[in-house]
Amino acid sequence: MNLQEALKYGLSNIKLDNPQKLSYILISSLTNKSRIELMLDENITIPTHTYKEYISRLNNDEPIEYITNKVSFYSNEFFIAQGALIPRPETEILIDITCKLTKDLKSFNLAEIGVGSGIISIMLNRLCKNIHSTTASDISNQALKIASKNISNFELQDKITLVNTNLLDNINQDFDVIVSNPPYIANDYTVENNLSYEPQNALFGGVQGDEILIQIIDLFLSSKAKYLICEMGYDQKEPIKEYLKNNDNIKLSFYKDLSGFDRGFYIEK
């Protein structure tokens, strides 16, 4: 199948919006060529069977990032696969806030709870040159394998240590900064079909949805860390404010996502 045949097939068979764009993404993944390179190569051959299989998976609501094993985040390309949550653009805000809060620290030790694909720890280490060490935990061995691959791709093995544990259990180290994008969806919430492909333990946070958030807040309050930066659900601002209302030793702030919804908070001791 040549490029024009592949594009024509994609336009006729992809049952989602913008089939031409999706066709180019799939073809680029199969050929390791950019869209411009594809258009300049008249002799390019696309593997027909695999291309049709990719389109079938796409039509079954599988996220294109899992099909291509690629995701763009903070203008970098990362490896992604089922077993780790697909990074969202909103998480770039968490990274920006963390960099801003810590810019005047001479050196700091960072902990990430729920490392997933590794994108937060990796980008923070690339952007914050004052990070001394990073410990990143996850309860999922699948996620840790994906994170390890990305950490190796960015040559940060000496900076980021991965630990298979819940929260920071059995990690005997003090941290200056804790970051997390934890599960925060209520267990009975019905999600879209494409989210069924993503790890459910990275999405659902308990009966109310904020149970793991509260555990992380408690862990932070009992630790020596100065900052906690965390994502949350759009409807969890008031419960978090209520939970922390009698704590006079902290400064609590919230931030919004790109659509104007409440998306996260940060606490400074």
Automatic annotation (TrEMBL):
Residues 11-68 form the Release factor glutamine methyltransferase N-terminal domain. PROSITE patterns: N6_MTASE. Its EC number is 2.1.1.297. It catalyses: L-glutaminyl-[peptide chain release factor] + S-adenosyl-L-methionine = N(5)-methyl-L-glutaminyl-[peptide chain release factor] + S-adenosyl-L-homocysteine + H(+). Keywords: Methyltransferase, S-adenosyl-L-methionine, Transferase. GO terms for molecular function: nucleic acid binding; peptide chain release factor N(5)-glutamine methyltransferase activity. It comes from the Bacteria. GO terms for biological process: methylation. It is an enzyme of class 2 (transferase). Residues 102-188 form the Methyltransferase small domain. PANTHER family: HEMK METHYLTRANSFERASE (PTHR18895), MTRF1L RELEASE FACTOR GLUTAMINE METHYLTRANSFERASE (PTHR18895:SF74). This is peptide chain release factor N(5)-glutamine methyltransferase. It comes from uncultured Campylobacterales bacterium.
